[in-house]
Amino acid sequence: MIFTRDYLWDSSFPLFxxxxxxxxxxxxxxxxxxxxxxxxxxxxxxxxxxxxGRLNALLEVKLINENLYFIVLGGNAHELINxxxxxxxxxxxxxxxxxxxxxRIQIINNEESWKASTTEWILGDxxxxxxxxDYLKADTLKVREWMLRQGFLNGSNEVNGVNNxxxxxxxxxxxxxxxxxxxxETLSKLKNIGKLKHxxxxxxxxxxxxxNDTLDVSSEDGNTIEKAGFITSVLNQAPSLxxxxxxxxxxxxxLKCLNLINxxxxxxxxxxxxxxxx
Length: 278
Known about the structure:
Elements: E1 7-13, E2 16-19, H1 23-28, E3 43-49, E4 55-64, E5 67-75, H2 77-86, E6 95-98, E7 102-108, E8 119-122, E9 136-137, H3 140-150, H4 184-193, E10 198-205, E11 214-218, E12 225-237, E13 241-249, E14 257-259, E15 266-270
Parallel strand pairs: 1-9
Antiparallel strand pairs: 1-7, 2-5, 2-6, 3-4, 4-5, 7-8, 10-13, 10-15, 11-12, 12-13, 14-15
């Protein structure tokens, strides 16, 4: 499916509020972006990491009337809230409050990164913005395809505490100069080394795939079978078209296609639209 126009992704997310004098300082020290520098009404996307720099959750944060709100775009919201709760101390003067679900709207297309397209939160009885009236609402299939082509991470096979944000194309959400935070030391080392085990790629093929299927190819000399990567998200479309996301090993990232063994055909790979390199 090719987008011939812009569409509107209209969705609902659980909303959380951080209350307390030190709420910005607290979230600043727990995530990868500069939360202290957030401006009133602006949106910031940020990563919540494990101590070893693996991505546990992808957040969208907004400052509203000097209160810090956030939603979980990718990952398990329950695990995030529990994880943050374990590191809140009385001296932090911070409390996490669960609010009602929020309506979130975003203009989607295959021309610009999801991180750059216009996004709005509609709080409470706030009216629908007139600037969005001319956009057709995307159905579930269109949104799913857009997410895959973008590398928008809301699947458990990508945001699972196993992969780091550099491998997933989120280096633009990682600030290594703002001071210490969970996982920062590991990411600094990876940045200095400049080499990653694998990276996320969008793929398409004429054969069907399932989650975690391996992409096996012949070695250069043809004597052994090598695993070039594996499927992390998949959408089997008719007729004879499958698209999705896969983690591809560094050795094969320069290729545009992978010729699979056992006459399983060719898999075409490319960077997702929203992917930002290390």
